[in-house]
Design brief:
Pathway: Cell wall biogenesis; peptidoglycan biosynthesis. The protein is built from five helices and eight strands, in the order H-E-E-E-E-E-E-E-H-E-H-H-H. The chain is α+β, with helices and mostly antiparallel strands.
Length: 220
């Protein structure tokens, strides 16, 4: 059931690719990065859907999942070294610092091992780096829980990530939350969670658990 629900998200993300504006400096033809966390692969595609290149990646570990959604490359850097490898492509995730980068542990590529970033072999990101400019759209598609074996997560004050952002969207649409949809479970959002749970007759915990996720239609 969970996979079926998330397939709808996947389709929406792919369809929205054509709506993401391309930076004025973008090469011709316009390109975007598509990251598929079901496959642990990164694709460079044209706006027509043609695949120009594909690479294996290592995304976030179970407890430090990678972001899901629509983002943009905001920074390019050379030779970060160490665990960040030879190249860095920063993306504008609201709840933390995330990027696509190289690694000094290429044997980990294909596994869920990072702190949320997307690791690539140095030789691969060195090929990708000159093809991507600041402003390039980045579409990240995958399980909203961060790992396909997880059916839900408990969100508590201090939690961050795509699931927090999704719940914020739902509570905002229902009129319980009027703050920014930024993926941070802060004090303002905690108060909204209390209001939501009390009004809807749910257990008033100030946390988002399985019962709340089911009630919101996020999991079944």
């Amino acid at each position: 059931m969970m996979r079926a629900f998330l397939s709808v998200i996947s389709v929406l993300i792919i369809l929205m690719a054509s709506l993401v504006p391309v930076h004025a400096e973008q090469a011709d033809p316009p390109v975007y990065i598509y990251i598929n966390l079901w496959e642990n692969k990164l694709y460079l595609r044209t706006d027509k859907g043609e695949v120009l290149a594909s690479y294996r990646i290592a995304p976030g570990a179970v407890d430090t999942p990678s972001p899901i959604g629509l983002f943009t490359v905001t920074k390019k850097s050379l030779n970060w070294g160490g665990g960040f490898g030879s190249r860095w492509l920063g993306i504008n995730v609201e709840w933390g610092t995330y990027g696509i980068h190289g690694t000094n542990r290429p044997e980990h590529i294909g596994r869920y091992v990072s702190h949320g970033c997307f690791r690539m072999k140095n030789k691969d990101i060195e090929k990708l780096y000159p093809l991507v400019k600041v402003g390039t759209p980045v579409i990240i598609d995958g399980p909203i829980m961060g790992h396909e074996r997880l059916t839900y997560r408990v969100l508590v004050p201090g939690s961050r990530g795509a699931l927090v952002k999704l719940v914020q969207n739902r509570l905002k649409a229902a009129g319980y939350y009027n703050g920014p949809v930024h993926g941070h479970f802060d004090k303002h959002f905690e108060r909204a969670v209390f209001r939501f749970q009390k009004k809807e007759g749910l257990a008033v915990t100030g946390q988002i658990g399985l019962e709340d996720l089911v009630y919101l239609g996020i999991v079944e």
